[in-house]
Amino acid sequence: MSKLDEELERRFCTSQRPVYVDPSLFTRLVQRRSRRERAKRLGALAFVVGLVAVGAGVFAITSGSDRNGTEPATSDAPSLTAEPAVGAMLPGVPYPACHATTMPGYSGVGGTVYLFARGPESGLCPDVASGNAFLALYPDFLRLSSKPTIFGPIECFNSCRVFGSPYITLKGPELAVVVMEHEGVDTIELYHVEARSETPFMLINVLERGKRTPLRFDWGIHGDYRAGAVCSQSSPRTLDVWHARLEEGKWHVVQQFMRLRGTTMIPSGTGKYATSLAGNLPSGDPDFCDSTRPTP
Amino acid sequence: VLDDATIREFLRDDYQRLVNAVALLTGDIAAAEDVVQEALVRAWIRSDQGEELESLAAWVVVVAMNLARSRWRRILVERRSRPGALAAEGGGQTERLDVERALASLPPRQREVAVMRYFLRMDTRDVAEALGVSEGTVKNSLSKARKALADRLRVDEQEEHDVEA
């Protein structure tokens, strides 16, 4: 070993800090493991509830029974169930923003990201779709006082959702925009984000159906709207990209399932259910199947 | 299979070392403890599900590093919001801070390889195996990291040349 290696070893060694090992650490780890396993079981339960709800919806439709508005139903177009009459005004955005979803203080970017549809000055909001979908980035992490950079329109077919996807490429923070069409997820657009740049969003990849992709998403939350993507570890491993809106005391959940084979994802179905308990929203491992495996 | 005894043994023999290794990457001992504990819990669950982990310590350190990488920016943001934090953590240990700063200037992969090699004293083959890359890739990263660290820590280059000569 060279002197340089020896010196580096010495410097690294002397940089050790004392770590206090709490005598109760083992017990706390056992509790942490139990919480994880319980969360997974709940996730699996929510999945089953979703399937049952879908089944009930199919039965209700095929049997022609009268549904009183609260029964779950199947969906061939995962999109928001409620359309606000007019868009909201976001600071610095010169037109109404419809169906805005946000990742407030997205740590990967160091700012706050919005995805929304450009709304008319007056009149009803359009769906978020190709031609009117925009991304906005507020570089100020804590406040929305700074002027946002608006980017778009982005490709969005019939609907799209935004997720954080840090470190997919290991080249910096990214956004994954999940693009829906009538049958479900069509593509995932991966944007590299440079918060301080004049052009902060750069499309670096479009992940199409069946293409290999590592997956790791954050969450979108806005008022009575929640969205996420979780992974069911039970076999076959399934990615569940979902969104839910609270209406009249019930969460109306729309799910897009994608089966994972290795790092390939294959859209495998959609589902819809309603629940009054927020705890019944899809849950699972947000780190996604295999994202904790060592990455090459 | 990871049983209670193995986990206790890990906590006794490896835990502090691995927390320190991750702390070198994050500069934050509390965050390092959290990710090592999280990685250990995940290893435990995987083992319960029947997955074989050849080396618990190697698996935990790589997963903890991956977790630390994804939390790194959040830690930076938190630090910026409380500027006194780093100084308070420092406690006057300038040598450690020098090492942490030198490491922070490296790309993630070089940083991780350097910590595994110089702090955990793993050889290049073990590092390659743990990271799932070729030994050549590790050697390449290590060579770059070594040069950059020597430069930033102002290790006597002349001495190094004398040895190599």
Widest β-sheet, arrangement of strands of chain A: 9-10-11-12-13
Which whole number gives the mean pLDDT of chain A? 68
How would you name the oligomeric state of the polypeptide chains in this document? heterodimer
Number of helices of chain A: 2
Distance between the termini of chain A: 27 Å
| Relative helix content of chain A | 10-25%
In round numbers, the mean pLDDT of chain B is 79
Proportion of β residues of chain A?
35-45%
Class of secondary structure makeup of chain B: mainly alpha
Q: What string gives the helices and strands of chain B in order? A: HHHHHHHHHH
The major pleated sheet of chain B works out as: none
| Overall number of strands of chain B | 0
Task: Assign the structural class of chain A, choosing from mainly alpha, mainly beta, alpha/beta, alpha+beta, or little secondary structure.
Answer: alpha+beta
What are the main properties of this structure?
heterodimer; A: 296 residues; 5-stranded antiparallel beta sheet; 2 helices; 13 strands; 35% strand; globular; disordered C terminus; B: 165 residues; mainly alpha; 0% strand
Give a written overview of the molecule.
The complex is a heterodimer of chains A (296) and B (165). Chain A is α+β, with helices and mostly antiparallel strands and 296 residues long. Chain A has helices spanning 3-14, 25-62; strands spanning 97-106, 111-118, 133-138, 149-151, 159-164, 174-181, 184-193, 201-208, 220-222, 225-232, 238-247, 250-261, 264-275. A 5-stranded antiparallel beta sheet of chain A has the order 9-10-11-12-13, covered by helices on one side. Chain A is globular and about 70 Å long. Chain A starts with a helix and ends in a 21-residue tail after the last strand. Chain B is an all-alpha fold. Chain B is built from 10 helices and no strands. In chain B, helix 2 (15-26) crosses helix 3 (29-48) and helix 7 crosses helix 9 (135-152). The longest helix of chain B has 26 residues, at 56-81. The termini of chain B are far apart. The relative contact order of chain B is 0.10. The model of chain B is unreliable at 79-92 and 160-165 (pLDDT under 50). The chains are: A alpha+beta (296), B mainly alpha (165).
